[in-house]
Amino acid sequence: MMPRETTRKRGKGRPAENGVGRDVVLATARRLLQSMPPARVTISLIAREAGIDPALVRYYFGDRSNLLLAVVDDMLGDIPRDRPDNGGAATMLRKRVQQVHQFSLSAKHMRRLMVDELAESKSAEVQSRLRDINAQAVEAYRSLLALDGGKSLRQVNPLFLYLMVVGIFDFFVSSEPMVHNAAPDGTKIDELSAEFEDFVADILLNGLRKR
């Protein structure tokens, strides 16, 4: 008599071989968050869209706040890092404005995700990571101003620069219906968006330049 083959029992939610991986769950959540308000993106919805059991989502990420934080980190990872170049601080600042604008376009509901969802999380780990994200962003502006050393740009509070640039583009993108309604009839939103980016960069640089 042949011995009976036994299979190792999986823990609850643990993926079997050739199962859906963590990256697929993350990509599904990111896709949903780019088109829907964060409050509507639940673990059940993500699991349904990925064709898996909700327990698998929890296996990979623990809870919803950790999954949302992973999506934010994944999105931020797409932003090119600033590198000093021959153009100096003014050129780098213009590039930063462009990056923030493009990021806002690709993450339409980022403010809701960061403020309405993650900032309210009770997880110490999530709160710590949020502080790191904001601190790194402010430090990038601080480094940019330090690179100039007061030669051509006024030395201002880098926190204010960060809040201003993020706030301007977040409003423009998240309030697109209102922006479209305020613009002249026939205005193409893509063209208006590009013009607005140039406008913000010019206003910012002219406001910072020493007189």
Automatic annotation (TrEMBL):
SUPFAM superfamilies linked to this entry: Homeodomain-like (SSF46689), Tetracyclin repressor-like, C-terminal domain (SSF48498)
UniProt entry tagged with the keyword Transmembrane helix: no
Residues in HTH tetR-type domain copies: 19-79
Domain of life: Bacteria
Gene Ontology molecular function, alphabetical: DNA-binding transcription factor activity; transcription cis-regulatory region binding
Region (Disordered), start-end ranges: 1-21
Positions of transmembrane segments: none
Coiled-coil parts of chain: none
InterPro entries per UniProt: Homeodomain-like_sf, HTH-type_TetR-like_transc_reg, HTH_TetR, Tet_transcr_reg_TetR-rel_C_sf
Alphabetical UniProt keywords: DNA-binding, Transcription, Transcription regulation
DNA-binding region: 42-61
The keyword Transcription regulation belongs to this UniProt entry's keyword annotation: yes
Protein name stated in the entry: HTH tetR-type domain-containing protein
Organism encoding this protein: Novosphingobium pentaromativorans US6-1
